[in-house]
Batch of 2 targets.
Target 1
Amino acid sequence: MAMNYNAKDEVDGGPPCAPGGTAKNRRPDNTAFKQQRLPAWQPILTAGTVLPTFFIIGLIFIPIGIGIFVTSNNIREIEIDYTGTDPSSPCNKCLSPNVTPCICTINFTLEQSFEGNVFMYYGLSNFYQNHRRYVKSRDDSQLNGDPSALLNPSKECEPYRRNEDKPIAPCGAIANSMFNDTLDLFLVGNESDPTPIHLERKGIAWWTDKNVKFRNPPGADIPLEERFKGTTKPVNWVKPVYRLDPDEDNSGFINEDFIVWMRTAALPTFRKLYRLIERKTDLHPTLPAGRYYLNITYNYPVHSFDGRKRMILSTISWMGGKNPFLGIAYIAIGSISFLLGVVLLVINHKYRNSSNTADITI
Amino acid sequence: MTEPLQWARYHWQRLTGGANRDDHERPYSYSSLLACRGKSSQTPKLAGKHRIVVPHLQPFKDEYEKFSGTYVNNRIRTTKYTLLNFVPRNLFEQFHRVANLYFLFLVVLNWVPLVEAFQKEITMLPLVVVLTIIAIKDGLEDYRKYKLDKQINNLVTKVYSRKEKKYVDRCWKDVTVGDFIRLSCNEVIPADMVLLFSTDPDGICHIETSGLDGESNLKQRQVVRGYTEQDSEVDPEKFSSRIECESPNNDLNRFRGFLEHSNKERVGLNKENLLLRGCTIRNTEAVMGIVVYAGHETKAMLNNSGPRYKRSNLERRANTDVLCCVLLLVIMCLTGALGHGIWLSRYENIPFFNIPEPDGHVISPVLGGFYMFWTMIILLQVLIPISLYVSIEIVKLGQIYFIQSDVDFYNEKMDSTVQCRALNITEDLGQIQYLFSDKTGTLTENKMVFRRCSVAGFDYCHEENAKRLESYQEAASEDEDSAYTPSGSLSNMAKPRAPSCRMVRNGPLGSISSDHLTGSCFALGSGEGASEVPHSRQAAFSSPIETDVVPDTRLLDKFSQITPQLFTPLDETIPDPPLETLYIIDFFIALAICNTVVVSAPNQPQQKIGLSSVHGMPIKSLEEIKSLFQRLSVRKSSSPSLASGKEPSSGVPNAFVSRLSLFSRMKPTSPVEEEISQTSKSPQGSGNSACPIETEKQDSNVDVTNGKVESLPGQPLASSLCYEAESPDEAALVYAARAYQCTLQSRTPEQVMVDFAALGPLTFQLLHILPFDSVRKRMSVVVRHPISSQVVVYTKGADSVIMELLSVASPDGPGLEKQQTMLREKTQQHLDAYTKRGLRTLCVAKRVMSDTEYAEWLRNHFLAETSIDNREELLLESAMRLENKLTLLGATGIEDRLQEGVPESIEALHKAGIKIWMLTGDKQETAVNIAYACKLLEPDDKLFILNTESKNACEMLMDTILKELQKKNPVSPEQASSEALHQPPAPPDSGLRAGLIINGKTLEFALQESLQRQFLELAARCHAVVCCQATPLQKSEVVKLVRSHLRVMTLAIGDGANDVSMIQVADVGIGISGQEGMQAVMASDFAISQFKHLSKLLLVHGHWCYTRLSNMILYFFYKNVEHP
């Protein structure tokens, strides 16, 4: 807006002044950033780059998939359901809550011998350990041995926080619902009396859980029972936490069965490591083929929520337990991309000479 | 920094409701400027009431308290917050935003223990942070405005003080209604006031309203009737009248009221008496007025508007997607809740994993499901991409930053780059399908440049001039400097005379303030006003490119043959060599006088150079006076285009009105003098004490032009005469004549003074003017030649018309006749060549009449003028009688220079599939010429011209054209009728390219409800449409029609106030800054300095913005919905 004609003086002197009073040029800087000229790389997909990629993916994935699949198939695994819903099952009697303690025995036969270390799992179905409030219902500082949290657990544990005015140790729904069946394995040999198989109770939990995350309340030379003084056992438990195992290194919060249970499963059907069967010598298989029986102290009620209970024996390989899916997936992806490669090759070959093939992009 | 801030602020405001919208985001009401809109005032609360203004003086103290006490004073406050209400008000406004409300809802929900999912305190953090940041932004922004307000409030003006009985300096904020204010030249008006006194003897005050409505020409304001005659200044002490006027409204073109004297005599007031706040006093030494509206009640403030918010299509689309997400969320939560309930009810006993409530109770499945619903809303909140909005804004901020820092948009000459005013429609730039462009000033530079001429059958191609034009771009700045140096010195001389100007003249501050006054401050950022300083002045008077014409050397050689002796024998029969010279002389005289140009000196407060000669006006008899009146009335009646539809402020009518008033005032006192020539200069010095410098200058001017051959920038004084013409072509011709030492010195209704190089000053007695009209396509002046004393008719007009009117049989014998025929053929060849080069051609011809012939014609003409029936026809006939048997003198070629790079840009935009419409108020020929020149139309395009007088004819014509088009571009009829509207067919390169030309009158028919569809169908089939003679309202209606019926993205680009409505209606409005004031820029979403920038803006930045933003939105949905 022209103020007056005398403003011409300004024009002669140069560009009009900015309000700050300083004469400045409004020309934008000619820099790579401001002019959007920064170096960039945008891949342009052409037949020359895409076809080899597909073939290479196919060629790499298919062998990997086959390898994994074979490995997975070599793993021995046996699964025994001992829920006892079937009336013919030996454990059927244990469904009624009256029989305590209820012990049932299930016979089974291993067709092939299990070599190397054998892992024994228990499996539960239809158990929603992933329920949002269930997962939260624990006090990690109590489990870490914090004395104040031991006697005053977090509110997250409600309503399994206190029982009869005493703090529950360990508090919360997870601990309260701990799996408490006892499984024993016997080999029915040629001799008349069956030999019990040694089941290793230790070494089934993560090292960090056992040594870092879970700790008993402090006091190294005080008996465990004293350290838990002032607390009470969870409502559903039979014995207090310090009596979980006779071995003091595996009792209290650092009981490995307990630690394994406290690591909640993501899906309603899950298995948790129960025991280890270690290989004795290289000569004999850990579990030779033959007849076995499983002795179950049946405590854990799953009938109310249509749950199932299983015992699983499995060997492992370098890639973990039995898992055919990974191998199949690899093989499938590899095959698909190989196939696509072939199809595109054919298309490219056929239409290469038409006008706009130069940039067949995918 | 400022623009992002504003943007953010307005973006938040956009989401705020109507409550505070009323007082802060007043809808832009430029529309009220267009009289035809008929939009009424927007202040209903006061409508119907009147305001009574009494002087703020002792005798009226009681009455003053009674009336004026309630009126607001001149202090303005545009800030939104005060220190006290900042926090609550800001929070209130922020929570008008849906996103924030949603956040708040979630935070509150998380506080409910039953459904809580996360830590309560943590969920609050993001919201608090966001609110704080925005609050700080708002605060800073408001503080900036506060400072600006303070600056303006503290500007100083002269207010009459009753204590000291004189005018004292007072701040603007202390001005109240009823104050008397005295302003000097070039001061900014502090409040709306009624003009009571002007130093101009005619009681006229010139104001420049460019800050208000963008029109750069000066407007005249009239002192209230009754005060005009007073010689001395109105004494405020003696002012005893009271003013009653309407309550404040925002209609700039309306002011009603009356002034009641103490003797109950009433004098009507109209807008001609009102000085508006924010305007600048020009060409008037001092004025005095009484304030009637102050502060926020001034029309300028009521017209204030900030940047507008248009929501981009993409954003609208994203909004629906977000709504879908909300729906999805609700469905998911409902499913979850229902499933939860069902799942719970399946269990007879409570399983381990279902934990009872803390108090041990187990809730029922139904209640559990209900709680689950809310819990899930918290858990799935990320499904709604609330961050999307914030991210979009940040991304757009970045895009704006990149657009604004693109060096390609920088205009060296104006030191300006692109301005993004609407900050959230960047991506719409990439989606434009229809482009509506103004012509003048947008495609062309609006600088008519004399290119070449043909005189007496010789083509003078003005090579040097062409070279100058080519090199103009580079030399522009220097040129300008040298051209303005003398004027600078002149204005320095003027300074001491108006010391009070200085306070508004102090550079940057002043320019901001006037910006602010007129409402541009919000939008323009602080630097804008300053940059405008040179342009508007440049636009008000012609720029050097138009005024400096380098004469052709060959023609100059012939000029040197001109001597006064040529005329002494004065014998027409003397043949050959002098004849061509005579032609040349006549040709240039015709260029100089056959027009309606007003001569003014731009650097002087007193504008009217011709005024002095009015005093010495040679009126011979009463009869002559009578004929003068008739002439004036003819002029008035035979220019209907001015009367209808056009704003009276368009400059020409104003000039006319002033002439009229001047004349009528002069009438009773005018002395009857016999003396015709040479008297004009002497009374000027004595009679007009106001401009001694001017007289001096004029004298020296004459001397210089007599002495030298070259009159180019080396001669400062000659170039300081300014010509204000009805059309720029006329001015161009006058400037061209000046280059050949044929300088138009002054023009009054009675006589024209031309300073002809060798012949000295010539004063032509102006007998009659037949103004230009579109039917005749020519104009004529009838003068009495001072040397030969013959009555000569000079006619200037379109070549096609003039060629037909040339005399077939020359009275002077067969030799001359033959020569005329040859001349005619040659000239026609030249004209064809000119047209091919895209020049606007005009033919110049003359006719010598004997006194008896003239007298006879005058009698008939008088009859025609006075007849009531068929007046128009009779007048036309009368004109025909005069304008025949013409002798062709020559032809001119004028270039309306296209802006640099326009054809290339249009071609690129065409290639991109954008349809371009040119909407212009110009004549059809001009518009089509320019359309060809800028490659909007190709030479082999098929043109359809819609030019009808009635609706039916229009319908039939459209029907025929449609059929023809369908024949050539076969499209199945169903497709044509149904789909054509939504999916315009005919890609640009499908064989036939069709162009549609439609003129204003036909457009009116086409825009009617019943023909709309047909018109659109037709327009959709043409790749270019030119609408000529379109009014601003029609422009906006066309845009609206296309936008709403074709459902396409439209862009309107224009530079003048007449494009504003169109710019506002379109999806994207672009203003060209610099040429015609700020109005278009103020209304626009983007302001660029040249049309050629449009192609990069649309095709590069628009494309980038769109792809980037849409990819980002897609990614957001992917990220939020697929992977919450």
Target 2
Amino acid sequence: MPTGGVFSGSVNLKYVKLGYQYLVNHFLTLLLVPVMAATALELARLGPGELLSLWRSLELDLVHILCSAFLVVFVGTVYVMSRPRPVYLVDYACYKPPASCRVPFATFMEHTRLISDDDKSVRFQTRILERSGLGEDTYLPPANHYIPPNPSMEASRAEAQLVIFSAIDDLVRRTGLKPKDIDILVVNCSLFSPTPSLSAMIINKYKLRSNIRSFNLSGMGCSAGLISIDLARDMLQVHPNSNALVVSTEIITPNFYQGSRRDMLLPNCLFRMGAAAILLSNRRREARRAKYRLVHVVRTHKGADDRAYRCVYQEEDDQGFSGISLSKELMAIAGDALKSNITTIGPLVLPMSEQLLFFFRLVGRKLINKTWKPYIPDFKLAFEHFCIHAGGRAVIDELQKNLQLSSRHVEASRMTLHRFGNTSSSSLWYELAYIEAKGRMRRGDRVWQIGFGSGFKCNSAVWKCLRSIKTPTNGPWDDCIHRYPVDVPEVVKL
Amino acid sequence: MELLALLTVLLLAHAVAYLAWQAVSRRRRACCYLLDYACHKPSDDRKVTTEMAGDVIERNKRLGLPEYRFLLKVIVNSGIGENTYCPRNVLQGREESPTHDDALEEMDDFFTDAVAGVLAKTGVRARDVDLVVLNVGSFSPAPSLVSRLVHRFGMREDVMAYNLSGMGCSAGLIAVDLARNVMLTRPRTTMALVVTSESCTPNWYVGTDKSMMLGNCLFRCGGAAALLTNDPAFRGRAKMELRCLVRANIGAHDDAHAAAVHREDADGRLGVSLSKALPKAAVRAFTENLQRLAPRILPARELARFVSRLLLRKLLLGPRNNSKAEGGGSSPKIDFKTGVDHFCLHPGGTAVIEAVRKSLGLTAHDVEPARMTLHRWGNTSASSLWYVLSYMEAKRRLKRGDRVLMVTFGSGFKCNSCYWEVTRDLADAGAWEDCIDEYPPETLVNPYMDKFGWLNDLQGQGSGFIF
């Protein structure tokens, strides 16, 4: 797939489209410009002395002034009230599994050897683990500690209750949230969707209100966390004065692959247990204690393309074992999806200087010299912190290269992969917790969360920090943050 | 003086124009039209009769004679006819070992028929769809079914796709709720595709737990796809306009939450267990929903009448409450027929339809669409209300200005309702086209009643037949 031409071509069109939309949407505002310009000119022409005599000749009495003032204030208030409501992230909690669920390399390898008869598979998984970028402290649910693992529905429900309820309890402790105050509930869990749904399970456990608006998203992959945030944001735009609880998790228990196909063994090695609960709100009084404000959510879906659609695919192997196969082209497809996402988010977040540079380089390529390389905007100017989905070492490497980031920018992602493994949709929240635990989050900082997932989707969310976050944060990193960052070698010899 | 006045006037005029424009565009986006919908009609080779169902049950060697009789009794009394559809793997004898591909094939058949159908009927291209919401209760592969849909029809890169799962038989209206809320937030008009189905392939229960076997007798294959839009340009072509949608979830009560649970039985086999507390949970959820719905859809006159009768009764009876024998008889009922012309009830089973009929005070004519849908298609879970709507349309019942109320129940326990106003006379028979003239049939009695009729003479088998 040609990268430069298609990329710049679609960007070209996007800019034209954006320009037209801006013109039409802000037509009345733009009309104001000539009016104000004319006024300013007129005032400049008159000079101060004349202005004073003009003012005196107005013969304004109290009634006039009061009426005008009232009208101005009234119109101003209505205008302010009619703007889209800001969506605040009040706080979030990440689940920290107990030490009994820990899976060091030795445990993982021993279990693999005992479960599998196939030597080649065992050696393959060893090699994957060596190069994975995971550390010795990642967690698997209790059912996976059995030999062989016990992927029953009961065990899956138990894991779901453990991770979700712990995360929500932690969030309630941190925010003082009352269950009766939750108006919107969005749960996403890709590979486990029982009946009644996980959202109904939460409603039952915490006795939430009967008129709650709940949604249970499923099957949407590792980028589903941001899809849930998008849905919660839309619901908060429609319902004033509301709280939204978003729960992102991935239930590992039912998804252990028992066969020997290599492309399906990868998830066994990489996916680990985790969950995050996030409280969003559009209540004005939450603005005081909220940590972040949601600025943009941009979603890109590459499902129309065959290769992208099949790159993360659940199917049965020849022996009938169900597993998720990851294709070798995953990196290239992730890069493509990211480029598409950037073309939409770039104009929204990049400073004018970068946009102009990009535009001129584009014009130059078209008119002057075709061999000029397309300009890759410097996103470091737009964001202070990056949270890249910890899908695997290769994904982080690829994005670091594509976005030209330094190792400090991807540190949160690498360390999350090392400490917690690939926790799917909740990994972005562990990364954010890392940045906060390191004391790097200052007021006014902008954060870019990028998630990738099956479909193939690339979703981005942009947050703005509203208050400097003090350490210790009482998050999942508190007991080990002093050890980080850790140097993760290319290959760990097992 | 003139300049200042002119300036103030200009600024004020600008501000007022801006606010007016905002208000108008918000109002334009606030309407939600049902452009069209299509119900899935599976191919004829998937039809299953009572006799065939009996054969499938007989194949299961784990079932003893009592279970066999119980199941046949359920089927014979279920109100389900001889033309419902089953997944292929069950008919081919592979109900114990459904494969992933079988389930995907069932979904693909549905996409090809209903989704392509609704796009063709309306002339909307897949690339024009801005939002797609898919709901399939108990099958959720990776990549999601909504991604499969996006892939199959080649939708745009910036399409907003949502995949709901696990939300039970009432999730069709949850999908509509999601679509409507997202439409309200977009600055431009949105074309939304709402796709609802249920996956029967992986969910045929092969064990011996009675509470789980009911699902096999009631749930059948089906699905529906609908196009919703908030573009006023489509008003002339739209079929109905959404007026109000109310959701009630009583999952906070433990027994309601445990009414329908997908779990393993004592032998480790998966199935959906329907508990005996289900009818009570349904009634509770229904009441909860109606309490919030009634003030929004009924005319003020009816509400006033109901409230005054309630107050009068309380005054007359004084501090003594729950006295049924005294004076006026049963408690005053609110008459929904003053605000609703057609009732689209979830055909969960004959007992459910009957219970709803009684509590709303409806006639046989009102519940005929639900009963006939149950007979012709079985309980197709979340998509069944679209079949009920289609029946009403095929029978030419829906005229401009009529008001339709959709009510569904589902696990959780939820009761969702949706109130529509018909915008033009409707006459499209849809999936009922080839058989609408045969409905209502002379008798709904199962033709195998004679053969299996001896079942009804047996007492004390499978207590409390809840459906």
